[in-house]
Amino acid sequence: MPVFKSGKNLAPFWCEMEYFDIVHLNPGQTHSFARVGAKEKIIVGRGRCRLAFDGEQKDVEKGDNVDLRTNEAAFEVLDVAEPTTLIRMAGRWGDDVGGSGLFPVWNDADTTNMGDPVDYPKTTKFDNHFHDCDEYWIIFEGRGVVVSEGKRYEVEAGDCVVTGMGHHHDFPRVFETVLAVFFETTMEGRKRRGHLWNHTHGPAEPVPTRI
């Protein structure tokens, strides 16, 4: 099952990202993240705040990506400048990882894209693709439909979609504009980065146990 919620022991057993939080903070609030993973990172989904981590402080804003560098450190939010959403990820990924960041999905009258062909309706320009790594989408705003491993799932804020290496996935439709985080964990196989397509990069070779 590729969709899971925040909480301990809810991710599939094979996942390198084992846990996530979505935290919404208003000006004047503070927050401490108890360490739960061998590795941890935060992506700022919206807003601005000051983080303390690894013995330093840093002002961060929407789109910033911060990784813990030591095994003992944890994240602490010291000051919130405006309404802020933080997405914290924890797990056991390797040192050679793919990309991570924010992405939106919305309906578009023009659904032309470079992805592999599909046999289901599309109302977005999102492309049907695969990776040489596992990928996680954490949705923190909106609702829509994803297709992963050939199966359709309705998803909403608070859901994490995980797709194993080599399996196609797509975001063909939204009901409310989606804002989400993507995180591509340890690179494997040919270690090609970015979106891969059968018609350009050769046939996908999905890991059959990662479903």
In short:
It is built from 1 helix and 12 strands; from the N terminus they run ββββββββββββα. With 211 residues, it is mainly β.
Largest sheet: 6 strands, antiparallel
Number of helices: 1
Low-confidence segments, ≥5 residues, pLDDT <50?
Answer: none
Q: What percent of residues are in strands?
A: over 45%
Q: The CATH topology of the largest domain is what?
A: Jelly Rolls
User: What is the count of β-strands?
Assistant: 12
Distance between the termini: 6 Å
How many distinct domains?
2
The CATH superfamily of the largest domain turns out to be Jelly Rolls
CATH level 1 class label of the largest domain: Mainly Beta
Q: How would you classify the helix and strand content by structural class?
A: mainly beta
N-to-C SSE string, H for helix and E for strand: EEEEEEEEEEEEH
Mean pLDDT: 97
- The radius of gyration is 17 Å
Roughly how much helix do the residues carry, as a percent range? Answer: under 10%
Shape: globular
Can you name the CATH architecture of the largest domain? Sandwich
Mind explaining what this structure looks like?
The chain has one helix at about 200; strands at about 5, 15-25, 30, 40-55, 55-60, 65, 75-90, 100-105, 135-150, 150-155, 160-165, 170-185. Strand 9 and strand 10 (about 150-155) form a beta hairpin. It has about 210 residues and is an all-beta fold. It has two domains: about 15-90, Jelly Rolls, CATH 2.60.120.10; about 100-190, Jelly Rolls (Sandwich). The mean pLDDT is about 95.
